[in-house]
Amino acid sequence: MSTQVATLGEAHPRQYHGLLDWLTTTDHKKIGIMYLVFALINGWFGGSLAGLIRLNLYNPDWHIISPALYNQLMTMHATIMIFLVLMTSFAGLGNYLVPLMIGARDMAFPKLNAFSFWIMIPAALMLYGSFFIAGGAAQGGWWSYPPLSSLQYAPGHGEDLWILAVILLGIGSIMGAINFLVTIIDMRAPGMSWTKLPLFVWSWLVTAWMLLLALPVLSGAMIMLLSDRWLSTGFYRPALGGDPLLYQHLFWFFGHPEVYIMILPGFGMLSHIIPAMSRKKVFGYKGMMVALWAIGVIGFMVWAHHMFTAGISGAARMWFSMASMAISVPTGVKIYSWLASAWGGVIRFTTAMKFALGFIFTFVIGGLSGLMLAVVPFDIQVHNTYFVVAHFHYVLVGGSVMTLFAGIYFWFPKITGRMLSEKMGSWVFWLFFIGMNWVFMPMHLLGIDGMSRRVATYRPEFKPMNQFISEGFIFMLIAGLLFTYSILKALTQPKDAPDDPWDTQAIERSLEWETASPPPAYNFAEIPQIR
Amino acid sequence: MNWAMIWLFQSAQQAMQAAAEQGAAAPTRNPFDAPGSNVARLAAAESWHAFLWVIPFILIAFILLVVVMVRFRDKGDGRQPAKFHENNPLEFAWTVIPAIVVALVALHSYPVLHFMEYGGNNPAVNVEVIGHQWFWEYKYPQYGIDISNDTLVLPANQVVDLDLTSVDVIHGFYVPGLGIQEDALPGRLTNQWFKAQAGYYKGQCTQLCGVNHGQMLIDVQVVPDNEFQAWLEAHRSQPALPAPSARLHLPGGFMQYRAAQKGINQ
To answer: Does residue B246 share a domain with residue B129?
Structure first.
């Protein structure tokens, strides 16, 4: 079959070659790869900013970094990691895998797909470039709450560039979401009914719906913020009858679905990796699918738990407390279903599986600290302290990033035709896993002890713990270096990966493993039939 | 004022000074190790209650994870993987049981939450807490006292009511030892009450408020009533500032607005 596919690929010659081909491509696979490379590069930038933050916090009296620059680093660390690393890498894997998994030749709108990617480049340039303009980059945190982000308190153009970059990224995400929705709804191979849709595709369908509903609200909030800054409007200005709380509601109406946008595709990937490595079918397919939708719906009803201390009414606190707790139920269903998928299996501890099982450990901690934060009396004690920093790093690093590592190790052979070194992979896993827990576990205690987040310096009693945390960062740094080296090394080797390196077809049919590694330009010689 | 009174006030001031020096050197108190108010004690108890319900779920997941890793790893003995991939009663159980538990945890916290919000009737002392970049201003409207960038001094074992607002950006008033955290927003009034034990409490701003956010510290000294009276006497002489309503951009004065808000709350 491979030879037949190869000849078909050559029957559709590329218009350009080399760099020009990458710049003009509308092939979902090449766009997917560009997303992933872009995410890795931005991961280095975002991670470096985290390194500088930890360096500055190593000693409260060093003041290596001025407080103004610290706020810029902290704002950009979050913005880059969220918009340019996590969303981007999930978009990359989704772009690459969704058409393959549903047996399509490309995304529904290939040119729009290229647009969604390329619009990120000016956005990224604006974000990075803002460090070098007068006044520096935005300093308002990734929430950019007014009045701190208003013209009066943020007079520099860094804030404007940040707002415009977020609007551009939002446009790209909305276009991408429409593309995913149409692709998944319209372009499934014949016979692929909804109940036969792979769970990764389900997860992207829910993610795309969330993007489509949440991102326009963010864009609207950003445009109002920009308008308040330059057009003398008063949406968020009390002196003109506006209200800064309005911004918080709008922002978190986007902001909380956003955290599920950044984890659901990861959930989808684990539902492929854990069964494949356990040599068993995924447990509770329908329950998994319903849980994804439950998260996708309840995710829109919990936003104000970010505002428990912002003076919202008691009734609102009660509702958002209950809803935030309720969302842990479908998340729990997924955890139990993964464990049941592995139960009774014959488990291969490949790097992908190590990251998947490591994810269960870290995500249970992150999920349950989230459940604690939904208890309002507790939340009031630790809101906006390092406890919250610990919580969301456990779900974003221990959650999203771990699933991304697992997904890359699992699908790298399909994408490049080459295997990643399992020996180095094991080192990457252990260094990252230990480093991640070393850094973020003590932050729970720092928060409970009363250290506020987003501070450039702190009271002396927090010093020993902060030094301990900063030391742990070195492990994550080495893991990142080794991971990058491992990828570069693999790319220099001959393409020797089999079509189905993990032997998944013996357990369950998944179309991406039926074509060659890497797949030819048109994916499948013939569109596969599903029975 | 007779000499005896002056001596009494002076010794009270000295006691306050000594306690402040000692308290400032000690680490920040937190509501779980050393709750310093009725609100902190309630919140800590409620947190432990929720945590006790959460622990079993952590343990179940971790134990299953370890069992899976140990028991089902590929030992190379040719064992065939199991074939099951659904179990309706099991899936029903792990959906419904956690749902009931989280609902109970949430419901259990409601009375505590309600008390924390609305329980502070007939406060003995009202303080207006006004956030500035980057210091706190405290006004005692009953006593005509207005201090800035200083320690907040409060009487012990009495209901204290804080009304928070800001003149510039959003700040967060967070004193973990007292179990309180509430944002101070421009154009809005937020409210927080508690009944504290004597002691020294440290906190800090929790809402990013600009360059010196990390240095916007809070110090609260809760003192016995006689020391509080002495402190009032020493500060009463300072000239009062104009009413905050001028800065709040609210219809009506600060106190009318507050009275209306209280009327709704109770």
So the answer is: yes
